Amino acid sequence: MIRWGEEKRQADPGFFCRKIVEGVSQPVWLVSDTRRVSDIQWFREAYGAVTQTVRVVATEQSRQQRGWVFTPGVDDAESECGLDNVGAFDWVIENHGDEQRLEEQLEHLIEFVRSRL
After folding, report:
1. C-alpha distances in angstroms, 103 versus 50, 75, 96, 107?
2. Max CA separation in the chain (angstroms)
3. Are 16 and 8 in contact (CB under 8 A)?
4. What is the pTM of this model?
5. pLDDT band at 70, cuts 50/70/90?
6. Would 17 disulfide with which of 11, 36, 42, 116, CB 3.0-4.6 Å?
7. Number of Cβ atoms within 10 Å of the Cβ of 53
8. Considering the chain, what percentage of its residues have pLDDT values greater than 90?
9. Over the Cα atoms of the chain, what is R_g?
10. Which helix (H) or strand (E) holds 54?
């Protein structure tokens, strides 16, 4: 499945992005799982300045406390770390285990989305 997806992306980087929005109109799109620079580029080209990027980060320690274990060949693949070197995201949400801080950050993001409706 991964190989098939990679082949589709190589032939047409916007293939999956177009499938998401095909035939549907929404005032706000929350695309929760973009994993590649080409995904972000597609949305920026298709929707321009209204595109907002959100990066959720967590320390390795907090991830391990949740049961995550690094798996070579999976966690270092493009599908998992292809956006690690993207310069600036519009929003960075820190999910290090402080629930109150996480809620505050999400509230700011929700307020922003509501202001655009």
Report:
1. 24, 27, 12, 6
2. 44
3. yes
4. 0.81
5. very high
6. 42
7. 17
8. 54
9. 16
10. strand 54-57
Q: Which residues pair with 56 in a beta bridge?
A: 93
Q: Both tokens of residue 100?
A: 């109150």
Task: Give the alpha-carbon dihedral of 53, 82, 56, 66, to 10 degrees.
Answer: 160
> Amino acid identity of 18?
R
Backbone φ and ψ of 57, nearest 5°: -120, 150
Q: What is the pLDDT of residue 74?
A: 87
97: left (phi over 0), alpha (psi -120 to 50) or beta: left
CA gap 89, 105 in Å, rounded: 14
Helix %, strand %, coil % of the chain (to 5):
50, 5, 45
Residue 95 has pLDDT above 90, yes or no: yes
Q: How many CB atoms lie within 10 A of CB 17?
A: 22
Counted residue by residue, the chain has a size of 117
